[in-house]
Specification:
mainly beta, globular
């Protein structure tokens, strides 16, 4: 587990170097809004993550990304990724990569799905540090890559002060809540939500009373299972907003426990579970 954490942190540190190339004015970023391939950050990330594998761009028929054109709050930007490829025994979406080009660490999250997911969709909230292209890249289980991109106007999200004071955040650290929407029916996809109380400190926000930067402390790993079978896992970065919130799907095949397990960047572990009895 320690080795796995080190590999992930090393990977993120390497990709953060690419993020330094994103420095520039909002005006300069606006000029590149219509040309997502031109960003040198993306070119470096593409090579690091996918080497020379082909990626079909503008693939809204496979993966769709919902994001505001102009965010009301750069620290809490709602993102929804929906895959259009129906899951089947032969071909399904296996992974989703969420990339925010001009963030300090552009790779915001990698989500891994299983057949128990039912639908390889995810909704969450992210921090956006500069005007940027946001990318969702779907990888199917046969190795094909599909990308859709949206340009989001927002700035300062990674250095914004937390919405909760440090003592209050510490008191509720790791508390989680799982819930499901609507009726739970056997063998049919069910929409669920996971809410995590965690400051998800980026390390870039200054404490106004001490004039010191609050050290980074964020949720880095998420595993969700149902009846002991994996549904969804994710490797996460501080780009996920304070008090992480995820909406996802799963397929209950019978009575069981929907369970969420979380590990943060200090190796603190938290879990929550919800017992469900689906109707036939």
């Amino acid at each position: 587990m320690i080795a796995s954490k080190r590999r992930w942190l090393a990977r993120m540190a390497g990709l953060a170097v690419a993020g330094l190339l994103a420095a520039g004015s909002a005006q300069a970023q606006l000029k590149s809004a219509d040309n997502p391939e031109a960003n040198p950050v993306w070119q470096k990330l593409r090579a690091a993550l996918f080497a020379d594998r082909p990626i079909k761009a503008g693939a809204d028929e496979v993966v769709q990304l919902d994001a505001p054109t102009r965010a009301e709050d750069a620290a809490v930007v709602p993102i929804a990724v929906r895959t259009r490829l129906p899951p089947s025994a032969t071909r399904r979406v296996d992974k989703l990569y969420l990339i925010i080009d001009n963030n300090p660490t552009p790779l915001a999250a990698v989500f891994q799905f299983t057949p128990q997911s039912g639908q390889a969709d995810i909704e969450t909230r992210v921090r956006v540090d500069e005007y940027t292209h946001v990318r969702a890249i779907a990888e199917t289980n046969d190795g094909q890559l599909y990308m859709t991109t949206r340009f989001v106007k927002a700035s300062g999200g990674c250095s914004a002060p937390p919405g909760k004071d440090a003592q209050a955040a510490l008191a509720s650290l790791g508390k989680m809540r799982l819930r499901v929407d609507g009726d739970v029916t056997r063998n049919k996809p069910v929409l669920a939500q996971l809410m995590i109380s965690h400051p998800n400190n980026s390390g870039l926000a200054m404490d106004q009373s001490t004039r010191q930067y609050t050290p980074a402390h964020f949720v880095r790993k998420l595993d969700i299972s149902y009846a002991g079978k994996p549904v969804l896992s994710a490797e996460l970065d501080f780009a996920i907003s304070e008090n992480p919130n995820f909406r996802f799907w799963f397929v209950p095949t019978g009575e069981g426990e929907l369970k969420a397990e979380v590990v943060d960047s200090k190796d603190l572990r938290f879990e929550s579970a919800l017992t469900l009895r689906p109707s036939n």
